[in-house]
Amino acid sequence: MGKVVMYGSVSVDGFVADEHDQPGPLFDWLTSGDVPLDESGVVKVSQSSYDYTRPYWDQIGVTVVGRHVFDLTDGWDGNPPSGIDHVVVVTHRPQPADWDPEAPFHFVDGVEAAMARAQELAGDRIVEVAAGDVGGQMLAAGLVDEVRMDVVPVVFGSGKRFFGSVQGQQLLEDPDVVTQGNRVLHLRCRVRR
Question: Based on the number of CB atoms within 10 Å of its own CB, is 179 exposed (0-12), middle (13-18) or buried (19 or more)?
């Protein structure tokens, strides 16, 4: 079974979006370099960001998101982002009525059931959990092995928190990777058990 990684770009004050679900400059680092990160040629980062991010992306088998993110992105039009094989959507609602049943999206009620389905689909590859409410719930439930943050030099002041509405203290190990890119600092910490 692969490891579970909570991941997202985040402001230095801990937000993944503003109050209106807008990421603002959080993804500017994805167009701040000259090294293509994917086949589109649109996403270009610094060499250091490429060296950190590309090997990670290549290991992801499944991404887990909440229904809110699914709705905001219009389900990526049925195509998982960044070449990922499957997306597991944590939701209490059924899939959209007009949803293509062949699209590699799986609608599951509850974080534990979502994680079980994601691990089944991922095999020995990484299960990526989007930062935010679902990520925070999975961290609090002890389902996350590692936290990765792309810290962007911007202060939002308020908005949607990286760890969602998680209550209580969660201990992480010291960062074992700290990589500076253009307009971003990549951090990786294991969750303390």
Answer: middle
> CA dihedral in degrees (20, 191, 91, 116; nearest 10)?
160
User: Given a cut of 90, is residue 166 above it in pLDDT?
Assistant: no
Number of domains in the chain: 1
3 state SS of 129: strand
Residues 62/86, Cβ–Cβ less than 8 Å: yes
Tokens 């792309």 correspond to 150
Binned at pLDDT 50, 70 and 90, residue 168 comes out as confident
Residue listed under structure tokens 């961290």: 139
- With 0-12 / 13-18 / 19 or more C-beta atoms within 10 angstroms meaning exposed / middle / buried, residue 169 is exposed
Exposed, middle or buried by CB within 10 Å (0-12, 13-18, 19+), for 174? exposed
Q: What is the CATH number of the domain that holds 102?
A: 3.40.430.10
Q: Tell me the pTM.
A: 0.94
Contact 186, 44 (CB under 8 A): no
Parent domain of 161: 4-190
Reduced to 3 states (helix: H, G, I; strand: E, B; else coil), residue 120 is: helix
- Using CA atoms of 41, 46, 51, 52 in order, give the dihedral in degrees to the nearest 10: -100
The owner of tokens 């389900």 is: 75
